[in-house]
Amino acid sequence: MHTVVVPEYGLGLGLQPNKQRARSAGSASTRSLGGPVTGRCPVALVACALPSLEGKVPPEAGDGRYRDQAHHGRDNGQSSRKPARVIRLLVVGVREQGEPIVRPTALTLAEAAAQFRAAMRDRSYRATPVGALVGRYVRWLRNEWGATPATVRDYEAVLARMALTLADREPLTVTVDDLRDVIDLWADREARTRGKVTSIVRSFWSWAEEQDCVPFSPAAKLRRPRAPRRTAPLLPLDAASRLLSATVRPRDRVALLMLLDLGLRRSELAGIRVGDIDLARRTLTVFGKGQKSRVLPLRGRIVLELEAYMLSALELVDRVPELDDFLLYPEKRSGGGRLIAAYPKRRHSATAMHRWWYARLADAELVGDGVTAGLNMHRARHTFATELRRVAGIDAASQALGHADLTTTLSIYGHRDAGDLEVAMEALARSHGS
Known about the structure:
Elements: E1 2-7, H1 19-32, H2 64-75, E2 86-94, E3 100-107, H3 109-121, H4 129-143, H5 149-165, H6 176-183, H7 191-210, H8 239-246, H9 250-260, H10 266-270, E4 277-278, E5 283-287, E6 293-297, H11 301-311, E7 331-333, E8 339-342, H12 350-363, H13 378-392, H14 394-401, H15 406-413, H16 418-433
Antiparallel strand pairs: 1-2, 2-3, 4-5, 5-6, 7-8
Helix pairs in contact: 4-5, 5-7, 9-11, 13-14, 14-15
């Protein structure tokens, strides 16, 4: 027995839950999986949360009390947008012409939410008409556009929710208002998050138009929200000196300087191998977002630290670093803190990098023991970029940071900061003295 889940009242989606529409939704969903529909038709899952109270509860839902509550709420002038039940259509058989035979039963919103999450995990959202198109887009994004696994994961997470929310829609019938309902799922998030969601939705439908899946993109009129312009948060003024004073291990000192003096991202630092360091040319090759690489010159104190690191035996491994060793790698310690295992050939996870950073902050007494929030690693990048922009200009900062577009750098570091104002005020004071 398989299920097709549809909302009892539409979420501004225009879904009318009658038998004919239910059968149509089930038929479209099962067909989208491909192959003939036989005795055991494939699972087609469609889930929408928090439907609004519009229309009447269909008789087959079998919940007269809920229908009375819906009308009672309207009579008292209360909002009609209440938590509603959802109809679960059980596929109990298949007609000769291939149309599924369904029987509706009640489904709570909690159950619908669980089904919703499951559909995203096992990718059964692709059983919906829009979801099938999303599956094709994800394949194109990975194989032809060359997106990184992280980009594919981020895009699919957004588009899967869109496919489930528009489960009753064919791609040709999706409107800009439908897509605004989708983006509204992130209404309580910050403007930058909503802007990213909008960009992903627009990219998907632009691709669908280019591939002749739809005659025009329904997302063409969507606009990114205006994000508030905020000053990039920096590390405390004495953070660099305190971090280096409290850190003894050569690899940790090098890693800290790559953050403080080169402005690497967390993922970039995690990917640094010994072979990426060229002390003869005094350069470091960094692999950043979108599989793009850049070469950074090495100057000053980081060169001395790298020379010491290259000549030092790795703890417990008892050998100098090899070209395919990661700079930072997983380790195991006993309950007393003694190192009992090290894996130089393995890359640190994002979580392990986060823990490593806060361990260094705790050693420097910049945060308390056990604290893992409030002074994130990206502040080191902001601090580096702000200082470099001040002494070398915005173009140099953009190149060092690996931004593909100068406008990205300008949006974050293009403003005047307190240091610029201090210099200006000192110049004004000197002019008054003269």
